[in-house]
Each structure stands twice: as structure tokens, then as C-alpha cells.
UniProtKB/TrEMBL annotation:
It comes from Plasmodium inui San Antonio 1. Residues 87-144 form the Serine aminopeptidase S33 domain. Pfam families: Hydrolase_4. This is Serine aminopeptidase S33 domain-containing protein. The chain crosses the membrane at residues 37-55. Gene3D superfamilies: alpha/beta hydrolase. It comes from the Eukaryota. Keywords: Membrane, Transmembrane, Transmembrane helix.
Length: 172
């Protein structure tokens, strides 16, 4: 994980918690931007799901349940200022309950990730989103293959089929 304490304090990362006990991580992309990621892992997973959010959004907002009470289309009440996103009844919990380890990435300029020229929702080239995603998938695979011993990497999980053959877990 890349350390940037001053940035963490600026965005309030230490003051809030993320429900569902995810593994927090981060990495520097090819342009030196710090990208934040999350992993909700299950034992004996049957597959790996990588969540990708859209523009002007982030992984937590898209795939965890917002911890708010909706009053009207333009009025909400936040139930807990220190826990904006809830694991319970979320997409992440659903996938975990069905045996999938789930990984999510805040794309550059979104969520807690740095943005190009330090601007929100800004990207130098649209293809950079693809490069970041490919780098993240590679990072996930490396962590399972023991290439990143600092993060407690292990062997890439295998799925045994009915013929006794072992195949790497599918990634979706």
C-alpha cells in the first residue's frame, strides 16, 4: 500500500469506517496518481468479481448501500456521518454470500483516488481508465500468486471440478 498520510487526513479517511471489513489498498498508476481500492474477500471463493463504477461515482457509492433516509428526490438524511456506505443488503454482500471475493477500484479522479491535474472527474486520456483497470487486475493476480509478500499474498485460488482438475478461479 502506498502511504500518503497528508492526503488521508485531507479526505477524512481516518475518521470514517467502511462497512463489511474490506481490505483497503492503493497503488500508483503509470502517471503517478494514487488510486484507492477495496477487497471484500471470502474463504473458499468460487470466483472473483471486479467492480467498476461509472463517471462521477465511486466503488463504495455504486456497490455498497448508502446509509441515508430518502425524504424526497432532493432531500436526504444521513443516518451516520462516520459510516456513509453500508455492507448489509448491498451488491458486495450479495456476491460475498454467493461465494465470490469482490474487489473494487476508485478510478482516477473519483472517490478517494487522485485526479489528473488534481481535479475531480478529470483524466488526461480516456484510455487511462483502461490502463488503470488492467494494472489493478494484474495487482490482484500478483497478490494471489505471492508476488506481493508484504500484503500476505498466497497462491492463486483454484477451483476443483468434477474430474478432479484444478483450474484458477474465474475473474469476472
Amino acid at each position: 500500500m502506498v502511504e500518503r498520510e497528508s492526503r488521508d487526513e485531507e479526505i477524512g479517511l481516518r475518521r470514517t469506517r467502511l462497512d463489511g471489513a474490506p481490505k483497503h489498498d492503493s497503488f500508483l498508476n503509470k502517471d503517478g496518481l494514487l488510486l484507492r481500492s477495496y477487497g471484500w474477500l471470502v474463504k473458499n471463493a468460487i470466483g472473483i468479481i471486479i467492480l467498476l463504477h461509472g463517471i462521477k461515482c465511486h466503488a463504495r457509492l455504486n456497490y455498497l448501500r448508502p446509509n441515508v433516509e430518502i425524504i424526497s428526490d432532493d432531500n436526504i438524511i444521513v443516518k451516520d456521518e462516520n459510516n456513509y456506505y453500508v455492507y448489509e443488503d448491498s451488491w458486495v454482500q450479495y456476491f460475498n454470500q454467493h461465494g465470490y471475493s469482490v474487489f473494487g477500484l476508485d478510478l482516477q479522479g473519483h472517490g478517494l483516488s487522485d485526479g489528473f491535474e488534481n481535479l475531480r472527474y478529470n483524466v488526461k486520456e480516456f484510455d487511462d481508465f483502461s490502463y488503470d483497470l488492467l494494472q489493478y487486475i494484474s495487482k490482484i493476480q500478483d497478490s494471489f500468486n505471492g508476488c506481493n509478500e508484504d500484503d500476505g499474498g498466497g497462491t492463486l485460488p483454484f477451483l476443483d471440478n468434477s474430474l478432479g482438475e484444478r483450474k484458477p478461479l474465474p475473474i469476472y
